[in-house]
Amino acid sequence: MFMVYWTEVQCEVKTPHQREFGTDEMVLAMKLMEELRTRQRAGEGVCYVAMQSENPNSVGHPGVDTVGSDYSWKKRRR
Fold it and tell me: Any idea where the domains of the chain sit in the sequence?
C-alpha cells in the first residue's frame, strides 16, 4: 500500500491532505506526486509532498524488539 501526503496553503492556512493507493497503484501515486510538484514549481501553495509505503502482508512489526544472547552492540568512533 502507498500513501501520498501533501499540504496546501491558502491565505496562510495550511491544510494537510492524503490519498491512499493499493499495492498495484504505484504508478498512479507517482503521477499524483508529479502533478503536486508541478503545481509547487508553478508557485501554487503546495508543500511537503511525500510518499510512504507499507507492506500489508508483513508478518511482524517493523524494527527489532528482541535480540539473541550473542548480539552485542557497540558504538564505534573513527
Answer: 2-53
